[in-house]
Design a protein that fits this description.
Its main location: cytoplasm. Helix content is 48%, strand content 15%. It contains four helices and three strands. A hairpin with a 5-residue loop joins β1 and β2. The longest helix has 25 residues. The model has no long low-confidence stretch (mean pLDDT 86).
């Protein structure tokens, strides 16, 4: 049975991710939950727990409220997942903020700054005197 779980876990996690994205966008009316992206879902091997990674481009100060709103809606979301997915156990949902997009934007900004200030570059990005 362990071999079957290796292929089933990613499929279930992706199904949960897709359904949650739709449910949050269309059904969750909590004002604390604005535009949110589900970046990944990790499901435990026994399907009892799912860690849902979320991201937003909203003000970072609102992230705790966002997570609180999502956790408040977790019961509703879990019940709806039970109606939509054909799996025996619907996992408990835990929402976690995924900082990877924010880190990527910061890194891209730093790279742009470094490239823009690099000596020997003209406005076209070509080296002079090379």
């Amino acid at each position: 049975m362990k071999g079957g779980n290796r292929t089933r876990l990613p499929r279930v996690a992706e199904g949960i991710r897709e359904e949650l994205a739709e449910l949050i966008a269309r059904q969750v009316k909590d004002p604390r939950v604005g535009f949110v992206t589900i970046t990944a879902v990790d499901v435990s091997p026994d399907f009892a727990h799912a860690k849902v990674y979320v991201s937003t481009l909203a003000d970072p100060a609102t992230i705790p409220e966002l997570l609180e709103g999502l956790q408040h809606a977790a019961g509703f979301l879990r019940r709806e997942l039970g109606r939509r997915l054909h799996i025996h156990t619907i996992p408990q949902l835990t929402f976690v903020y995924d900082e990877s997009i924010e880190r990527g934007l910061r890194l891209a900004h730093l790279i742009d700054e470094a490239v823009g200030k690099e000596p020997g570059k003209d406005g076209e990005g070509e080296d002079r005197g090379a």
